[in-house]
Amino acid sequence: MCWLCDAKSTLSASAAAHDELHAGRWSPRRGFLLAGAASAVGLASGPAQAQVDVGQSSAVRTLVPAEQLEGAAQQQYGQMLEQARSQRVLAPDNHPQLQRLRAIARRLIPFAAPWNSRSRSWQWEVNLIGSSQVNAFCMPGGKICFYTGILDKLRLDDDEAAMVMGHEMAHALREHARERLAKTQATSLGLSLGARLLGLGELGNVAADLGTQLLALKYSRDDETEADLVGLELAARGAYAPPASVSLWRKMMTANGSGGPGFLSTHPSGPNRIQELQDNLPKVQRLYEQARG
User: Fold this and answer.
1) H/E element holding 147?
2) How sure is the predictor about 29, in pLDDT bands with cuts at 50, 70 and 90?
């Protein structure tokens, strides 16, 4: 999927990662929590109804307890940060690129709750790892990470970086990982949806040990479309220009032609993806204009 598919191999190659750092060796620092970011920024008194249409989330996701999945994700995220910290590739709080990403997050997070009420209690966190890998992710529970490669190699401006972040946040808000795991476990345990009450206990036990499975998940084409559109709306509400979603994927297509970054192995690009985004730009343009004031 779009989170940690290549994280282990990337972090183990610490020498290569060091080559990508522009600010020298990064000293180990604790990750910055964005808990309460929504209240810090200030929520609108009644956000307008969603403008993009992605339908309802799949009910099958409820076969995996959200609390256990988020707990497993938090543990895996912490382990990844600790590994990056030990190799001195975890950006400190004062790193300019990290500060930029956290500023973007503070503008997007206030609009997350209408897409998933659980996100009100998430301890949002944003970190940056020095790596040539073109990748970014948001794990269940709001754990966001960018690699320097996606910022530097694609030369993302703030609007484009916001589209990446909105897309990754949308995967978490729409609980795509929870749905993927539920379907996988239901199949492997021979369960049917009609036997939910019987299977829930077994799935709950499985969900308690999901760390390794989170590394291998891939999203479906429908998941990717949902994340594109929800992310587009989140970014527009945060006052980031909607057309940046199109310029982002044009950059991705160009990058794919020159070596195929890891991000594209789980986020296939192409004319259809760009066309769908273009079709939805008018739906969110007014949200952007209102946010810009």
Assistant:
1) strand 143-147
2) very low
Note the pLDDT tens digit of each residue in 143-180: 999 999 999 999 999 999 999 999 999 999 999 888 78
Catalytic residue among 70, 125, 168, 226: 168
Amino acid at 42: G
- Annotated active-site residue 289? The verdict is no
CB neighbours of 145 closer than 8 A, spacing ≥ 6?
Answer: 3, 77, 80, 126, 127, 128, 129, 136, 137, 138
Residues 6+ apart with CB under 8 A from 160: 154, 244, 247, 248, 251
- Residue 283 and residue 288: Cα distance in Å, rounded? 10
Distances, alpha carbon 235 to alpha carbons 41, 154, 232, in Å? 15, 19, 5
d(CA 84, CA 176) in angstroms, rounded, equals: 26
- Is pTM beyond 0.85? Reply is no
CA dihedral 252, 163, 7, 116 (to 10 degrees): -140
pLDDT band of residue 52 (cuts 50, 70, 90) is confident
